[in-house]
Each structure stands twice: as C-alpha cells, then as structure tokens.
Amino acid sequence: MKRRSFVKKSVMTSMATVLGSEIVFGTKLPNGYIPLGMQDVDPFILFQKDKRMTVLNSKPWNIEAKAHLLDDKITPNKYMFIRNNGLIPENMDVRGWTLTIDGESAKQNKTYTFKELKSKFEHHSYQLTLECGGNGRSEFDPPAKGNQWTVGAVSCAQWTGIRLKDVLQDVGIKDDAVYIGYHAADIHLSRDPKKEAISRGVPITKALQDETLLAFQMNGEDIPLAHGYPLRLVAGGWPASVSGKWIERISIRNKVHDGAKMMGSAYRVPCNPVAPGEKVNDQDMCIIESMPVKSLITYPKTGAMLKKGEELRIRGHAWAGELEVAKTEYSIDFGSTWRDCLLDKPVNRLAWQHFSAAISFPKKGYYEVWARATDSQRVSQPMLLPGWNPKGYLNNACHRIAVKIV
Ligand SMILES: Nc1nc2c(c(=O)[nH]1)N[C@H]1C(S)=C(S)[C@@H](COP(=O)(O)O)O[C@H]1N2
Ligand SMILES: [Mo]
C-alpha cells in the first residue's frame, strides 16, 4: 500500500494565510487535499481587487477592469487586470530567490541574488502601459477562443526597478544576439514541471531600451504576487505577454526566442490581412510587436444621463505602442464629424496620455460619444472592428459610451 504523505509545512502556511487562520491539525492534512474553505477563494479578497472587476476565468485567474474603473492617471492595483497563462507560483521568497542570465549570446552565465540586483544597479521609475494582445477579443466574429476580454485588459502603473540593459551589459552580450527570452516561476496548468506556462521575449533592441525594466516595485510598493512578485520584466508598449512575471531566468538568444507561446497562433497575427474565419498557415503568421494606437473613455461611465444645457466633460487615456499619440478627437454624431480633445504629453515614453473634452449636446435624446486617437505616424484607430485574426488580437476599434440628455 502507498504510504500516505502529508502536505509540506510551507504549503500549509500559505493555505493558512489565505484562510486567515491557523489550520488546527494541519499537519494531518493528506497531500493534494484542498480544504473546503479554500475552494471558493474570493478572488477580490485574494488579489485585493475592486468588486466591480470582472472575473473571466478562475483556472487560471483572468480578471479585467471596466472602462470607468480605469479613470486614474496611474492605475492602482485594485483596478489592474490580471492575465495568467498558468498557476500563480507559491512561496516566492526573495531570500532564496535568484535571477540567472544565460543563453547562446551571453558572454557568460551569471546568477544574481535579489539583494545584489537591487544594490548593484541604478534604480529607475517609469509609467508603462501594459495591454494584453487579446484586449477587445470579445468583439471578433467568428469568435476567437480564449478569455473574452472587452476593454479592460490594459493598465498604466508606475514601475520601479533596474534597467534590463544594465544587467545584460554586466553579463556581456555577444555580437550575434538577436532576442531575449524569459523563464518564470509560474506553474503549467498540467502541473508538469517540465512545461512552461509561457516563455516569451523581445528583440535585443527592445531589451536594450532605457524603459525596459526588471521591476521590483509597482506604484511604490512590492509588486503584488499576482503581478509578478518579486521581479518582473516590464516592456511597455508591446503586448503585455512579453512582460514576464515571476522572472527567474533570462536567456540572450542568437535567434528568435522559441519558448512557450512564441509559435503558432499565440501572440501572432497573419502577416497580411485575411478574410474572417480563414485558416492561416504558421509560416504566414507574424509576431506582434508594438501595439496599435488606442484610447479609452474613462469618464463618464456609459449610460450617463445629463440635463439639457449641461456640459459633459469627458476624460480618458490614449496610447500607441512605441509611438506617441499625436491627436485625440471625439464625435457625437456616429463619426460624421470630429472635434479635438485636449491631450497631455506622456509623462515618459511608453506611458499612456490623458485626454479630455467639454461637450455640448444640441437637444434632448440618445447620443454616443466616440473617441479616436491618432499616432505620431498619422495612423488612427478604426471606427469599427479591425482585421480579423485567428486568436482575436489587436482590436483597437474606437471606444464609445452612451449618453442620454433628458
Ligand atoms: N510568468 C508569466 N508572465 C506573464 C504571464 C503569465 O501567464 N506568466 N502572462 C502575460 C500576459 S499574456 C499578460 S497580458 C500580462 C498580464 O500582466 P498582469 O497580470 O500583471 O496585468 O502578463 C504577462 N506575463
Ligand atoms: Mo496577454
């Protein structure tokens, strides 16, 4: 007969934290047994999220915001979307934690402790826009599999850490380096330790940008566990899937990184437009790089009611991947005419920009307010759904809200 094994003490401690009290007789818990009190964990409490956030999936956890919850200039944790491909790692302890840099194009393999990283390299802080490549997926037809994100898989927090380039240069980069790939501590859904939930990366040029951080703080505090504690790669302006959470290893590659979710239709779109529903061969798919121009009206909430004669002051954010947003406009006549909004400059490169406008309505009735951003290369958001693709990425159609004048 197989001997009964018991849960590790460390696992028990973390379960007790979630339950909020000691598990009396916890040492007698059989391995793999999940206490009832933990099977219905309240994600809002667990992740300290606002109750108005939408849970799209619990295995793995995927949670999104609503447009009006993203009104802050800097996104607080409670409104920040969570996108996980695997299971959140447990017991992340900075004391035993290390970061290793390796790969064909690293001049040496080097391992740093958390303390070394923090003391050896200069600290930098940037506001960085992170948008999931699949944000807006729910609109595509035929529908795409995956989390049905509406508009809330985007955030712009203040990230503090060290520059990835400083660490890579400390290790030494060979001339043939073309890409970096991250390896993280999260657990594959199958729980097979040989499989990685996700292991993506960026071209070496993006890795060497000043704003590409190995962050240890978000909004001035330790990064919340769900967002990558203790160390996270943050490469703003690109699909957020390149911003690896719970980073343990970064490989400097002499070819395009070939980790989990770099191939097939994962985070790739047809290199040339295809008809909705068309099957696309792997070799005709291209990796998503800089995200397209987009904007979001964060005030008021859709459905706002105003009295005739009242002026409406709308607010929102606009972002354009690697580029700056040059213009934001609004329309109240379904896109027939557009007027300029006030638009702030970004606080730093790759931070979203804030816009506002004071709108008057000619008479009582139903209106929609549409917002449209244009990037520094004069590319504007489409009014309707852009190019269909198998996984439903890059929906940057104009955001709109309903307004009633009574
Ligand atoms: N290790 C790891 N990093 C990851 C992921 C993941 O599942 N595991 N998801 C990626 C994806 S697809 C997105 S959109 C962002 C989401 O970041 P957030 O959960 O902090 O908002 O993290 C990225 N980094
Ligand atoms: Mo994502």
TrEMBL record:
Residues covered by the Moybdenum cofactor oxidoreductase dimerisation domain: 287-404
Top-level lineage group: Bacteria
Domain Oxidoreductase molybdopterin-binding residues, every copy: 88-259
Pfam families reported for this sequence: Mo-co_dimer, Oxidored_molyb
BP-aspect Gene Ontology terms: sulfur compound metabolic process
Names of the cofactor(s): Mo-molybdopterin
Keywords: Metal-binding, Molybdenum, Oxidoreductase
GO molecular function annotations of the record: heme binding; molybdenum ion binding; molybdopterin cofactor binding; sulfite oxidase activity
InterPro entries in the cross-refs: Ig_E-set (IPR014756), MoCF_OxRdtse_dimer (IPR005066), Mopterin_OxRdtase_euk (IPR008335), OxRdtase_Mopterin-bd_dom (IPR000572), OxRdtase_Mopterin-bd_sf (IPR036374)
PANTHER family registered for this protein in UniProt: SULFITE OXIDASE, MITOCHONDRIAL (PTHR19372:SF7), SULFITE REDUCTASE (PTHR19372)
Protein name, UniProt field: Sulfite oxidase
Annotated organism of origin: Costertonia aggregata
